[in-house]
Design goal:
Oligomer: single chain
CATH architecture of the domain at 7-327: 4-Layer Sandwich
Largest sheet: 7 strands, antiparallel
Radius of gyration: 21 Å
Order of helices and strands: EEEEEEEEHHHEEEEEHHHEHEEEHHHH
Shape: globular
Strand order of the largest sheet: 14-12-1-2-15-16-17
Helix content: 25-40%
Length: 461
């Protein structure tokens, strides 16, 4: 099981306010620090002789065609874990979200623990070589069919027209579906694909997948193929850890069943939103902790466990919203929105993806605590703010809005200035301006939170 648990949200171009496609994932870890970096990998920096750290997998890679952004671990001793990024062909990929499986498929197609692929590998092996979302599905599918995997994962790809959601099934099998243009998907840590049509041009899968299901009596339904029931789980853990996250987002954005319960296993896979989605709406649900319900952890006493796992946690490492725009010149298409640290206390910044470097406060993350760096700054905000959440909530929310407003203003200006020509150097300089805004405003927020904490110290007389 991957340590990076995560939650994913995807949106087709007709489901968003400006016609962009969206691939979004917040990356989690265990209850410990795992510093993250934001980097641009040029073709010259891409490894050519690749070796996994989590298995004995090795592969000589072709000459890379594209550079790409990514958010790898600062400590690469366990692997790269590129997480998510946009390449210079304006294709986005996020990898991975840990999902569930069941003993029936694992007995037929065991995991390849010896020399299979895992989360640490996927982005590096795929994103530098693909010019479309469909090509990403095909390349990753071919790798998994040939080499196998040692864990259950979900991955997503997008280009300016299409968004694809991909799940591993057992050790060597997989399936992917295209997200409808006018719909969104919220995917917690379970197998999420429901009804699957093998004859559709909007699905892809391992070549022998239908035969595997039919020959081994894996399908509990007399008609159709529901992959969540065929390959997934329906455990008590799903009812408290996974399903409630999908339920809450569907209640907020629309398209879910109004009478559904948080623990329901049969929540829809793709939903039509009540309104076209904005970056702000996506950030709000990806920072959610069941606000407005009785399940909000902040309703409970310290150390008292809330009934359901929320999207926002102290274990959030980073949130990336990979936006591919359709109303701008090609160099401006890719926007790698990024926020490090726990989502309740961070702020999204719209970094251009077609660059040659990334801002130092996001790129040069130290393995040890250094509050000048964004990863550690947001963790400091969370450590202080969580202890006084009701008092500081307005300050935190206002700061996140202020960062969005200020960085959107810069983005609007740069879009206008670079409408006829945008070089990687220009966009790199713009990203440095965006990072400086976020660093300044979040540092100012930290000062305000320390002031609140100081006034609430017990040692007063």
């Amino acid at each position: 099981m991957s340590k990076h648990t995560c939650t994913m949200l995807l949106a087709g171009r007709k489901a968003t306010i400006d016609g962009s496609t969206i691939v979004c994932r917040e990356e989690d870890y265990g209850n410990a620090f795992d510093p993250q970096r934001f980097v641009f990998i040029s073709p010259a920096d891409q490894p050519r002789h690749y070796a996994s750290k989590g298995s004995a997998f090795k592969l000589d890679l072709p000459v890379p065609q594209y550079g790409y952004t990514s958010t790898p671990d600062a400590d690469d001793s366990a692997g790269i874990f590129g997480a998510g990024g946009i390449n210079t062909a304006n294709v986005a990929m996020t990898a991975t979200e840990t999902i569930t499986s069941n003993p029936r498929i694992r007995a037929l197609d065991p995991y390849n623990y010896k020399d299979g692929l895992g989360e640490e590998d996927f982005l590096t092996l795929v994103l530098p070589y693909i010019s479309s979302a469909r090509a990403g599905v095909q390349r990753l599918g071919q790798l998994l069919t040939r080499y196998g995997t040692y864990e259950a994962n979900a991955i997503a790809f997008s280009d300016q027209r299409e968004v694809w959601y991909f799940e591993t099934l057992g050790g060597h099998h997989w399936a992917a579906v295209r997200v409808p243009d006018d719909q969104y998907v919220i995917a917690p840590n379970r197998l999420n694909i429901a009804n699957f049509d093998f004859a559709s041009a909007e699905t892809m899968c391992a070549p022998d997948l239908q035969q595997l299901i039919d020959d081994n009596q894996l399908n509990p339904d007399p008609v159709g193929y529901n992959f969540r029931r065929i390959f997934g789980s329906a455990s008590n853990q799903d009812r408290v850890y996974n399903n409630p996250r999908a339920w809450y987002v569907q209640q907020q954005l629309g398209g879910g069943r109004p009478d559904s319960q948080p623990g329901a296993n049969d929540l829809p896979f793709a939903c039509t939103p009540n309104h076209r989605l904005t970056i702000e709406a996506i950030k709000q649900v990806m920072s959610s902790h069941y606000q407005g319900t009785a399940y909000d952890p902040y309703h409970f006493a310290a150390k008292e466990e809330a009934p359901f796992r929320s999207i926002a946690l102290n274990r959030n490492l980073e949130l990336h919203v990979l936006q591919l725009r359709n109303n701008v010149p090609e160099p401006l298409v890719g926007v790698h929105w990024l926020a490090f640290g726990p989502n309740t206390f961070n702020a999204l910044v719209p970094f251009y993806a077609n660059v040659n470097d990334t801002p130092a406060a996001y790129r040069d993350t130290s393995k040890q605590y250094t509050p000048r760096e964004m990863y550690w700054l947001v963790h400091t905000l969370a450590a202080v703010g969580d202890q006084h959440y009701r008092q500081v909530q307005p300050l935190v929310e206002q700061c996140a809005d202020d960062v969005l407003a200020a960085t959107r203003a810069v983005q609007r200006q740069v879009d206008h200035e670079c409408a006829s020509h945008a070089s990687a150097a220009q966009l790199t300089a713009a990203n440095n301006r965006l990072a400086e805004i976020a660093t300044t405003k979040l540092t100012e927020l930290l000062g305000k939170l320390v002031g609140v904490a100081f006034k609430n110290e017990h040692l007063q007389y």
